[in-house]
Amino acid sequence: MKAKESKASYGILAILMIGAFVALLSNTLLNIALPSIMKDFDVSASTVQWLSTGYMLVNGIMIPSTAFLIQKYTARRLFLIAIGLFAIGTFIGGLAPSFPVLLIARMVQASGAAIMMPLLMNVLFTTFPPEKRGSAMGMFGLVMIFAPAIGPTLSGWIIQHYEWPVLFFMIAPIAVLVFILAFFKLHDPKKDVVIKIDFLSVVLSAIGFGGLLYGFSSAGNKGWDDPMVYSALIIGAIGLVIFIMRQMKMKEPMLNFRVYKYPMFALSSAISITLNMAMFSAMMLMPIYLQNIRGISPLDSGLLMLPGALIMGVMSPITGKLFDKFGGKVLAIIGLAIVVISTYFFSDLTETTKYSTLMILYSVRMFGISMVMMPVMTNGLNSIPAKYTPHGTAMNSTIQQVSGAIGGALLVTIMSNSTTSHVKDMVADAVSKLTTKPSADQLLGIQNQVIAKATIEGINDAFLVSVGVAIIAFILAFFIKRGVQPKETAEEKVTAKKVAAKQVTTH
To answer: Radius of gyration of the chain from Cα atoms?
Structure first.
C-alpha cells in the first residue's frame, strides 16, 4: 500500500515539476528576444523592458497571497488554475498582434507561474517526512535553477534560427499537456476550506511588494534620483510596513510573519537574501561584459553559462541527499566559500580574459551556489510548524523576488557610477599627458576610447561589492543549526481545533 502511495506521490510531483519547469523557463526565455520584439512592434528599450518588469511585478504581487490560496483550495484545483492561466497567456503571447496584447499575455503567464512555485514547495513538504525533504527539495532545486539558467542559451539559438513567437509556441503545447495530465491524474484528499481573504491585505501587499519591486528594478535604468523610482520605493515601504502590522494583528493572516520568530527560518531568509543579491551580480553583469564590451553574440554568451547551469542541475539532487545526511551547515559553509572566492576572481576582468577562463569561473561559482540555496531553504522550512509551511514557502518565494530586484538594481547602479568615475579619471590622465590643450573633438575621442576600459573597471567594482555581500552570507552560515519542526503546544492545539470547528468544508 505504501509503495502505491509513494508511486502516486512521485507521479503527482512529476506533473507539478514539469509545470513549474516551463513556467520558470518562460521567465528568462524572452530576455534575448527583446531586441527583435522592439523592432517588430517599433517600441523603445524602456517600453519593451516591461515584458520582464511586468512579469516580475505580477509575481511579486501574487506570491504573498499563495499562502491563503494553498490553505483554501486543494492542490489539484489550484494547480489546474495556475497551469491554465499560464497556457492561456502563452497562446495569446504567440499570437499577439500588438505590444499591449503581448504585455497582457506575459502578465497572465506570470499570474499562473506565481502560484505554481510556492504550491510545489508546499506539496513537497506535506508529502515527504523531514528526513527525506532534502532529496525532494534537491529535485525542486533542479527545476528552480536549471530552467531559468538554460533559458538564455535556448532563446539565443531559437532567435538565431526562427522568429520570436516560436518561444511561445514551443512552450504552449507542453503547458496544455500538463493541464490534461493534471486534470486526469491529480487527486487530492484535502477538501476546499471556506475562509475569507482580507481584501485590504491583498491591496496593501500589492502596494508594498509591487512598489518595492518596481522601484528597485527601475533604479538600474532610470537612476535613484528619478521621481518614479523614489516615489515607488517610498510608497512600497509604507505599504509594506502597514501590511506587516495588519498581518501581525490578524488571527488568520494572509501572510504570517510569525514564521520569523523561529531563529533558523529567520537565518535561512537572511542567507537567501544575501546569496540572491550576490548571485545577481553574474546574471546582470556578465551579459553586459560579454556582449557590449567583448562583442560576443547572445548565443555564445548563453553557451558560456550553459555548463554552470548543467552543473547546478546535476548537483541539486546530490546536495539534497547530502543535506539529509549531514545537514545544511557544512554544505552552506563550503558552498559560500566557493562563491566568495570565484566572485573575487570575477572582480579582475580585462579586455583579454579568455572565454574558457570565464566559463570555468562561472561554472565553479554555480557549483558553489548549488550547495547553498536549497539546503539553506529546506533547513529553514524544517524549523517551522507544519501549519506555517504555506506561509514559509510563500515568504521564501517573495524574498527571492525582492532580493533579486534589490541586488540587480544595487549592482547596476554601482557599475554605472563607478564607470562614470573611471571615465573622468582616465580622460584626465590622458589629457595630462598631452603637450597642447585638446579641442572638444579630441576630448570626445579620448572619452570614446576609454569608455570600454572604464566599463570593465565599473563591472569589476560591482563584483567586488558582490564579494562583500557573499562574505556576509558566509559568516551567517556558521550559525546554522539543523532545523527541527517544533511540536504544537497545548494552547495551539486547542486554537487549531476551534478554527477547524468553524471551517465549513465543501467537495
So the answer is: 24
In the structure grid, which three cell numbers stand for residue 43, read together? 517600441
pLDDT at 65 over 60: yes
Residue 503 has pLDDT above 70, yes or no: no
For residue 478, give the DSSP letter. T
Q: Is residue 67 within 8 Å of residue 391, measured between CB atoms? A: yes
State the distance between the two ends of the chain, measured CA to CA, in whole angstroms.
25
**8-state DSSP, 488:** P
Using one digit for the tens of pLDDT, what is the confidence trace for 147-177?
A: 766 777 777 788 778 888 988 998 899 999 9
The set of residues, in sequence order, having a beta carbon less than 8 Å from that of 418 and lying 6+ positions away, is 457, 458, 461, 462
Cα-Cα-Cα-Cα torsion 201, 206, 209, 212, nearest 10 degrees, comes to -130
* Cβ proximity of 118 and 389 under 8 Å: no
pLDDT at 499: 42
State how far the Cα of 147 lies from the Cα of 134, in Å rounded to an integer: 20
What is the DSSP code string of 351-418?
TT--HHHHHHHHHHHHHHHHTTHHHHHHHHHHTS-GGGHHHHHHHHHHHHHHHHHHHHHHHHHHHHHH
Q: Which of 24, 20, 110, 118 is nearest to 67 (CA)?
A: 118
The continuous run of DSSP H or E covering 505 comes out as strand 505-506
Cell of 124: 513537497
Cell 533558523 belongs to 264
pTM of the model: 0.75
Q: Is the pLDDT of residue 335 over 80?
A: yes
